DNA sequence: GGTAGCCGTGTGAACGTTCACATACATCTT
DNA sequence: AAGATGTATGTGAACGTTCACACGGCTACC
C-alpha cells in the first residue's frame, strides 16, 4: 500500500539506488538501461506503488497522456434536454476509453459550440488549459477547416472523424456514400421503385455524401433520379414527421424511406402508424444510425451500423502514435454494416397499393 | 488571436505591468487587488488570450480543476459490448460536464473494477496520475467502504451517489425505498393484489432498499407480504426473462411487475408478448429506470425517473465547493418522479383472469 | 507620534517530471 | 595504443503555476 504522502520518482530512485533519470527511462521504456537495473527499478516501483504524476510529466516537457475529444455542444445538450440519449457520446466513450486505457492514456470529453465564430476560441482555451497530446474532432467539427490548422500551429496532432480524408491530418471515416448507395440498392432490389431520403442537415458534411450515394444508386439501377425524393428532416423527430407525412400522403408516395438518423426513422414509424401503413408490408423504413433504440424497438429497425466506437478507438490509437513521434497524418477507412431487421421488405405489389 | 507559443502568466504580468503573483490573484479571484489593477490585468488576459495551464496550476500546489467520476467497469463494458447503450454514463456526463463547466472544471471519466480486491489499487493509481480535486463514486462503488477512506487519507473529497447517507462524506441520493413503496402502492391502488418485484443484484445496495420499499408498501396496504413475490433477474434480460416466465406461468400469477432496470422491464414485455398477455390490460409492467428506450418504446413504459444527471451535478458542485475550502461532508436528497405511461393500468377483473 | 495592524504588491522557492547535456566506462577501429 | 564510437548512468535546468513570506504604505489606536 502506498503511504499517505505521494510517492515521487525520487523515492523510487532512492529505493532502487539509481538516479531520477534512470527511473524516468524505465517508466518511459527508454533505451540504454541494463536489464538488471531495469528490474530493480521496476521492483521498487511496484513496492512503493509509484504512479507518475501526469501534471508533472506535462510540466517537464513530456506528454500529458490526455486525448481530448470534442463534440457538438448544441446537439449533445439538446439531446440530453429532450431525454433522448446520446448514443454517439456513449459509443465514443466506449472506443475512446478502451483504447486510451491500453496505452496509459486518459480520454477527456468536452463540448464546443458549432458556431464557427466561437469554436476556434473555445478549442483554443481547452487546449491551453488541458494541453492534450491529441484532439479528436467529431462531426460537425470535423468539417471545420479552421480547427485543425489551429491545432497544427500549436503542434497538437488532430484526428477528424467521418470526413472525406485529406492528406494533412489523421482522418478516420467510413464510406458514407457507399453505405447510402448500398442500402438504396438493396431497397431497389426488393422491388421498391419510389424511394425517399430523409435528410439531416447540410451542416453535417456526411449528409451531402449520403445523399450522393442515394442518387448514385438510383442512377445505377436504371430507375433514374426521378424515382427518389428528398425530405429535409433536420435530424429532428418533429421536422421529419411533418415532411414524411407530406410525402406519404401525396399522389404517388414512396414505398421505402431512408432516414439519416434514428430519431427521424422513429418519426417515420410514427407517421406510418398514424396513417395506418403497415411496416414493412406497405412501407419499408431504414435508419442510418444503429442505436440501442433502433435495435431494441418493436419492431427492430433495419439500419446501417456505423463503426463509431471503432473510429474513435482508431483515432486515439493514431494520435497516441503521433505523439510518440509517429506520423500526424493518414487516413483509416472502417467498414460499416447493413443490418437488415424487421422494417424493410419487398415492395408492395403495385396493384394493391393504396393511394391516399 | 493567441500567438504560436503558449501565453504564460509571465506574459500577462509584463503586459499589465504587474508581477506574476498579482495576475495569479486576479485569475483566482483572490482578495487584496486594487480594482484598477484588476481591470488592467483582465484586459491583458483578454488581449493575449491567456488561459492558465492546468498542469502547472496543479504543480504549483493549487487545484487540478479535475473531477474524477468512477464507474463500474464490468457492467459498463458489458453494456457496450452487448450494444445496449449506457444511459447511466450519458446522464452522468450530462450532469457532470454541465456543472463542471460552470466552475471552470473538467470532468474525467474512468472505469474501475468492482472486485473489492483490485478496486482500491485502481482508484489509487488513477488519483496518483490525475490528482483530481474530487472523486465521484457511483453504484456499486459507492457501497464500497474502503474507497472513501483511501481518498480521505489522501485529502481528496469524495461524493457517493445513491447510497444511504452517512456523516463523513458527501452523499447524494434519492429515496429508493420510498420510490419502490410509491410505485407498489400505486399498483395496489389500481387493484393489483399479486405483485412481483424483479430484483437486480444484492451487490447493488439500492436493490436491498427497493426491495424494502416493496415489502413496506405491501404490508401497509393490508395485503400483506404474501401478496408479493421476488424474482432474481440479475439486471439482465435473459436471466429476468426466464424468471418472469416461471412467475407468469405458475398457478396464481402476479398481475403487476416492477423491474429494477429497463432491460428487465423489456424482458417482461417480451415474455408477456410471448405468452399472449396484453399490457396493461392483463399485466402491468413498471421499470425502475427511465431510459430513452423506456420512454420511446412502443408502448412507452411506466417508470421511476431517477435524477441521475441532477445527482452527479450536485456531487460536482459539492466537490468543487469542498476543494475551495467548503465542507467535505453532507448529504443531498434529490426527488425522483413516478412517470405513468402506457404499461400500467387497472388490475384485470378477477373473473376474467386467465390461468395458464 | 510611535506602533500595531491591514491592504496591496512583489520575490524566492517549491511542486515532480523530462530535456539537454555531461560523464564514465566498454568496445571497436586503425 | 590512441582515438572514435557507443552504452549506461547522472546532473542541472526548465516547464508554469501557487505558496509562504517579505515589504512598503496607509489607517487607527492609545
From TrEMBL, chains A, B:
Q: Which UniProt keywords apply?
A: DNA-binding, Transcription, Transcription regulation
Keyword check for DNA-binding, yes or no: yes
SUPFAM superfamilies membership: lambda repressor-like DNA-binding domains, Periplasmic binding protein-like I
Q: Which residues form the HTH lacI-type domain?
A: 7-61
PROSITE patterns found in the cross-reference section:
HTH_LACI_2
Q: Which InterPro entries match?
A: HTH_LacI (IPR000843), LacI/GalR-like_sensor (IPR046335), Lambda_DNA-bd_dom_sf (IPR010982), Peripla_BP_I (IPR028082)
A GO molecular-function descriptor = DNA binding
Q: Which Gene3D superfamilies does this chain map to? A: 3.40.50.2300, lambda repressor-like DNA-binding domains
Provide an example Pfam family for this protein. LacI
SMART domains reported for this sequence? HTH_LACI (SM00354)
Listed name of the protein:
LacI family DNA-binding transcriptional regulator
